[in-house]
């Protein structure tokens, strides 16, 4: 089997091994493939049987131009970069990686929140710049410091990751509200399921852990923000388009939203004209919730297992059955 990995660098910048794929066939790995150049994508796929991608788009045009493709694997959970219907018409299974980063993403959501509450990075820099050494008092802080105990966290999307975040929030003494289309007993043990409007109205902190679907795109917008408490904190390390960015920027600048912690934005890498770059109290990290080595190693192992299962006649984690 001929295997090509189109954009392997973010999954494996050198601290993991491609050995699992190498055992399955002739492997070619590209660190990056230009996302907007279908000619390059098609050339790099060439005669490959198995195509592995993270963010390089596999469109209907690419699928049509590469008749050798028998399998498409995604080094991620989201699969919107692949035209899954076009692949289905060609009887090509598209396999993703579910549940590899649950602990890491939940942990990162809380890390964003704690940074907002304590501004640790800012105060660390201030100390290294000598401000504490020369300060007239024995301590100082430049921003309000926030205690989370007894505050309410509302989590939109209460699957594995949402429940992980909720469990940590409970350990911090927070009350947990949840909104999800499929309530379950595990969730009920962590938080209270409520309507979306109830969650908006009662939450001091709102965390987004829902998938991006047409019905969730732009979920956080001018109208929904108006239903929230004054001074609410918003955390999003799920999908950028869940938020109407200009509306959130306006709310941050007006003070309606106290702060936002974001690991995702609508276009990635972020564009210089993104209004959130100039918004007050907006903390943005470069989509790294998923990226601890432990999480990436888990992802790698599942990706190899997916391809091995396909070779053995029964594909796993197929999103276009």
| Percent in strands | 5-15%
Which runs of at least 5 residues are low in confidence (pLDDT < 50)?
none
How many individual β-strands? Answer: 12
Mean of all residue-level pLDDT scores: 97
Give the radius of gyration: 22 Å
Order of helices and strands: EHEHEHEHEHHEHEHEHEHEHEEH
Major sheet strand order: 8-7-6-9-10-11-12
Morphology call? globular
The number of helices is 12
Class by SSE composition: alpha/beta
Oligomer: single chain
Largest sheet: 7 strands, parallel
Distance between the termini: 22 Å
Helix content: 25-40%
List the helices and strands and how they pair.
Blueprint: E1 2-5, H1 19-22, E2 26-29, H2 38-45, E3 50-53, H3 60-65, E4 71-74, H4 84-89, E5 94-95, H5 102-118, H6 120-128, E6 152-156, H7 160-171, E7 175-179, H8 185-188, E8 192-193, H9 196-202, E9 205-208, H10 222-226, E10 232-236, H11 245-254, E11 257-262, E12 282-284, H12 293-311
Task: Describe, in plain words, how this protein is organized in 3D.
It is a single chain. The chain is globular. It is an alpha/beta fold and 321 residues long. It contains twelve helices and twelve strands. The chain starts with a strand and ends in a 10-residue tail after the last helix. 33% of the residues lie in helices and 15% in strands. The longest helix is centred in the C-terminal third of the chain and has 19 residues, at 293-311. The strands form two sheets. A seven-stranded parallel beta sheet has the order 8-7-6-9-10-11-12, with helices on both faces. Strands 2-1-3-4-5 form a five-stranded parallel beta sheet. The mean pLDDT is 97. Helix 5 crosses helix 7.
